[in-house]
């Protein structure tokens, strides 16, 4: 009896490792983002539905509910609650099965995702600039740049879809997902850092310590860089580059898993 084995070459091994690294990272991120959605609904959703707006401040916030500031409270509520919708829609867009089998759903969730993401950026910029909600100037600048990148990338993803340039659209949509996830990455990055270092090394209360500065800008610049590495390695027939990218993405998945554990156990869980 003879058995035929599929031929395994270094090139196919590197390509498979890269694909699985991407899948591993996505599964960890999907779990962590589902936890973020669950926290937003269980914390802000429940308190808002009860009409107990002052209870938004049951967890540490810079402003949250401010007595007498109706406009600010309204924008804060819309921003915090819609964060659950944008996170859910972003995840749905990335599931390949849904994209293939439900193209109409993909188009509608895609349009809603881009519209809500733009609202998140504009309302976030309003909260920071008009309401004056920020901890330090450096953290405010970092999140303002994040907001501007969301608007720019969402515009480019939308334009390439309208022009039916689908490969370009896929690339800009993935970049948009990364910058829209910046706020989630920041929380995961902060908790991952605290866990890995067993303490808030290089961090200050107003988020202006050296580790804070790296994390506030890194919350979107690092994921964007890794995404570009993933794209370049997927495109090129370079075994070394594929193997390197696979190792980096696996490491990122491990760090993300530590950060997700930290956010659920210490940042969100205790307030539910
Ligand atoms: C699209 C991605 C975004 C998501 C998913 C998101 C999510 C959230 C959530 C859940 C909160 C409630 C606070 C908390 O529990 O942590 C919040 C607050 C806030 N967000 Fe966003 N946000 C996004 C984008 C932005 C942007 C781009 C900016 C600024 C340019 C911004 C500025 C703020 C501010 C100033 C607060 C109030 C924080 C406080 O009072 O402590 N957000 N955001």
UniProtKB/TrEMBL annotation:
The chain crosses the membrane at residues 20-44, 74-96, 108-128, 134-156, 177-196, 208-231, 243-268. Pfam families: DUF2306. Keywords: Membrane, Transmembrane, Transmembrane helix. InterPro entries: DUF2306_membrane (IPR018750). The keyword Transmembrane helix applies. The keyword Membrane applies. It comes from the Bacteria. This is DUF2306 domain-containing protein. It comes from Phenylobacterium koreense.
